[in-house]
Design a protein that fits this description.
mainly alpha, two-stranded antiparallel sheet, 2% strand, globular, single chain
Length: 344
């Protein structure tokens, strides 16, 4: 009887209080949801300063990058050359007569043996430069991460190649590689070694461009990895040393894992930069001797500015293919990082 009475009282209380309580609970939650989902007008009114700061950047990027990209993709689907594009000669204006050809340019480039040759050398050039640059940057960062006299001076000296404009550095190396008057061959001749045709032999020319690009890329790699090393807590090294771990063990089990995130980022950036490194190839060897050091980006330049008649559609096709290759690489790289537990 007492149980039945208590249940009746509970039901009565629930019937009287429940609806009001439910309405009181539902009402504020709906208003909160509406406040948490503001419209575009409210977002603009609330964050107008952020939008004002971002808008000029978006417009500039759209003009500098967006429009040329769209224009390049469109030209790659036409047969545009310097003979059929619109141009003005004196007071006369000649209308464009090029036509839409679809994917014919892509089929022609992919079927051309030149594309495979340029792609293979570009991949070899990129892998060699990035791997050597990373190894040297890691070694130098490890050395500079220790306390020793004159460390600041060594840091400045090693960062110097990064501060010098790229074209100045390449021209300096071109003088060093000169077969007859270059300093390198003078040193070799002084040691009784025959002068090396650095820029005249296809194999040595490839070695030369890789060496110059590594010299230009090591400072960035060193600074990035040195910053990563300095962010690793020193207590980890102290604990490992107390446990009897040697220098190699500390480097392998503490330094390398601690540099994983930084390493993945700088390797990606270095790969993209090296894949498109036009100045070193063009200023040092002009793609020669012959076409032995031509990479994909210099071939695109040759199609647009060197060949006669200048093939704008072909150059745009090469450029779009380069972009697609880098996008595929970035996606594969990102997926591999996610499988390793890295968030990127």
């Amino acid at each position: 009887m007492a149980a039945h009475t208590s249940q009746s009282v509970a039901k009565a209380a629930g019937s009287e209080v429940g609806p009001d309580a439910d309405r009181a609970a539902r009402g504020p939650s709906r208003r909160t949801d509406s406040r948490n989902r503001p419209g575009l007008r409210r977002a603009l009114a609330t964050h107008w300063y952020a939008w004002a700061m971002v808008t000029p950047v978006v417009l500039v990027l759209g003009v500098i990058i967006g429009w040329p990209l769209v224009r390049g993709v469109y030209l790659s689907l036409t047969d545009a050359t310097e003979r059929n594009v619109g141009r003005t000669i004196g007071a006369n204006h000649i209308e464009a007569t090029y036509k839409f050809v679809g994917l014919d340019n892509y089929a022609a480039v992919l079927a051309d043996p030149v594309f495979l040759q340029r792609l293979v050398w570009t991949v070899v050039w990129t892998v060699a430069c990035v791997s050597i640059t990373f190894a040297l940057g890691l070694a130098l960062a490890t050395v500079l991460n220790r306390e020793f006299r004159g460390r600041a001076a060594y840091r400045m000296a090693l960062i110097l190649p990064w501060a010098v404009p790229g074209f100045v550095s390449v021209f300096a190396w071109r003088f060093l590689f000169n077969r007859d008057n270059g300093i390198l061959n003078k040193i070799l001749e002084g040691g009784g070694i025959t002068a090396v045709p650095w820029l005249d032999d296809p194999t040595w020319a490839k070695v030369a461009v890789i060496a110059v690009n590594v010299w230009l890329g090591v400072p960035f790699m060193m600074v990035a990895l040195l910053g990563g090393m300095q962010s690793i807590p020193g207590e980890l090294y102290e604990a490992a040393e107390m446990d009897g771990a040697g220098p190699w063990q500390r480097f392998r089990h503490i330094t390398l894992p601690g540099l994983r995130t930084v390493s993945m980022t700088v390797i990606l950036l270095s790969t993209i930069w090296t894949f498109n490194m036009f100045p070193v190839i063009f200023l040092l060897t002009r793609g020669g001797p012959g076409d032995s050091t031509e990479i994909l980006v210099t071939q695109a330049f040759r199609e647009a500015f060197v060949s006669s008649p200048r093939d704008f559609a072909g150059s745009a096709t090469w450029g779009v293919l380069i972009l697609l290759l880098l996008m595929i690489f970035a996606l594969v790289y990102r997926r591999s990082l996610r499988k390793q537990g890295e968030v990127w």
